[in-house]
Automatic annotation (TrEMBL):
GO terms for biological process: cell division; cell wall organization; peptidoglycan biosynthetic process; regulation of cell shape; UDP-N-acetylgalactosamine biosynthetic process. This is UDP-N-acetylglucosamine 1-carboxyvinyltransferase. GO terms for molecular function: UDP-N-acetylglucosamine 1-carboxyvinyltransferase activity. It comes from Methylorubrum thiocyanatum. Cell wall formation. Adds enolpyruvyl to UDP-N-acetylglucosamine.
């Protein structure tokens, strides 16, 4: 298995281009199943999760084409991908494919809405909690689907098509909102989704669906209204920038010090995280095409955060923020309210010398003077990158094992950091 070696202690200086968002590209690709016409997606990141979903869509019969590179494009420039689901041959998504990635479960919605049936394995994904799909099933049942669980598969059917309904989520779910949106887009009549997720990735999906002919109002608020249409068509859509990748590199600079421009991204995608970063003594300035992040000399001030659905502090940045707080001048308190088991990075950060105490959903971090390199193990996607951040700031060498987690969500990580002065290399097994 590949490993990453990092020799820490060098500030980061330069420019990092931000990729298209994994968590937007995945539902957008899945939306291709809603139409027989071609969906062209621009700025799709090159990631293991995208490749995994491409295999799943291929298994359904979706035609996948990567449009040729244009002059000026580099390995880190997102790809343009054309997906055409004109000849869907199979409405089953098998265990072997779905178990590697949670978002793949969402194919159930377009398959059911367009073909009246779907059989999808219960999902896998990052080991950060139990992650049930009861709310996704509830939404589909409200729309009239008959659902049973059989041999680890969710089998969904509808005799006369889905029908618009009132769907009220008891708690905010991003995947549930994606599924409800896609299914309602092709249902008869009006669907109201209450307590909908307001994440920018939900808005991106809704905007693409609208271009495909869907009638959706209110995406980005907690009440979305969908008027079902009989059919959807193809379109061209650019995937929005990855706010989690943006926040991750911002935290890396906050920790190592230096001056980095994060380009092809937008401040409003992560306002709450940038406010918290500013309160730690990091200078954040908006650029026309991104964000400039600077910390020169001054120490890192401690700050408390609680993860929350958008526009709150994202759970997908909690591990990275914890890495930063390990070097703060004092105590910080980090509460994780979204996933019950998202503290796997704590014991690995401790190997670098961090002092963190866990108490239920609360992590209390006592800042230390310095971290020291050590061998560590990547456990899930965001935990892995928190170790990269810690290692960049630690003295000496850190070896990160099991880096396949990183490849799920960070495009060209070593190249992007390396060009800013980080001493980072991948050792291939
Ligand atoms: C591919 C993708 O976009 N993944 C993101 C998505 O995951 P995902 O869509 O899986 O996360 P959800 O928003 O659905 O989960 C939020 C909470 O609701 C619970 N829940 C969810 C569904 C359900 O049927 N029942 C239930 O109890 C979950 O266990 C969790 O505790 O949003 C999460 C929260 O912002 C992010 O961390 C993930 O990176
Ligand atoms: C948890 C994540 O992904 P997934 O929902 O696919 O497990 C993530 O992107 O941080």
């Amino acid at each position: 298995m590949d490993r990453i070696h990092i020799t820490g202690g060098t500030p980061l200086n330069g420019t990092i281009p931000i990729s298209g968002a994994k968590n937007a590209a995945l539902p957008l690709m899945i939306a291709s199943l809603l139409t027989g016409e071609t969906l062209e997606l621009i700025n799709v990141p090159r990631l293991a999760d995208i490749a995994a979903l491409t295999r799943i869509l291929g298994n359904h019969g979706v035609d996948h084409m990567v449009v040729g590179k244009r002059p000026g494009q580099t390995a880190e420039t997102g790809q343009t991908v054309r997906l055409t689901a004109s000849n869907v041959i199979d409405t089953t998504a098998p265990y072997e494919l779905v178990s590697t990635m949670r978002a793949s479960f969402w194919v159930i919605a377009p398959l059911l809405a367009r073909f009246g049936e779907a059989k999808v394995s219960l999902p896998g994904g990052c080991a950060i909690g139990t992650r049930p799909v009861n709310l996704l099933i509830m939404a589909l049942e409200k729309l009239g689907a008959e659902i049973e669980i059989d041999g680890g598969y969710v089998v969904a059917k509808t005799k006369n098509g889905l029908r618009g309904a009132e769907i009220t989520f008891p708690s905010v779910t991003v995947g549930g909102t994606h599924v409800a949106l896609m299914a309602a887009a092709l249902a008869y009549g009006t669907t109201v989704i209450d307590n909908a997720a307001r994440e920018p990735e939900v808005v991106d999906l809704a905007e693409c669906l609208i271009k495909m002919g869907a009638r959706i109002e209110g995406a980005g608020t907690s009440r979305i209204v969908v008027e079902g249409v009989a059919r959807l068509g193809g379109t061209r859509h650019e995937v929005l920038p990855d706010r989690i990748e943006t926040g991750t590199y911002a935290m890396a600079v906050a920790m190592t010090g230096g001056d980095v421009s994060l380009v092809n991204t937008r401040t409003e995608l992560l306002a709450s995280a940038l406010d918290v970063l500013a309160s730690t003594g990091t200078e954040i300035t908006a650029l026309p095409d991104g964000i400039r992040v600077r910390r020169n000399g001054g120490g890192i001030s401690p700050a408390d955060v609680t993860t929350d659905p958008f526009p709150g502090f994202p759970t997908d940045l909690q591990a990275q923020f914890m890495a930063l707080m390990t070097l703060a001048k004092g105590q910080s308190r980090i509460r994780e309210t979204i996933f019950e088991n998202r503290f796997m990075h704590v014991q690995e950060l401790a190997r670098l010398g961090a002092r963190i105490r866990l108490d239920g959903d609360l992590a209390v971090v006592e800042g230390v003077e310095r971290l020291k390199g050590a061998p560590v193990m990547a456990t899930d996607l965001r935990a892995s990158v928190s170790l990269v951040i810690g290692a960049l700031a630690a003295e000496g060498e850190t070896q990160i094992n099991r880096v396949y987690h990183l490849d799920r969500g960070f495009e060209a990580l070593e190249a992007k950091l390396g060009r800013c002065g980080a001493r980072i290399e991948r050792v291939r097994a």
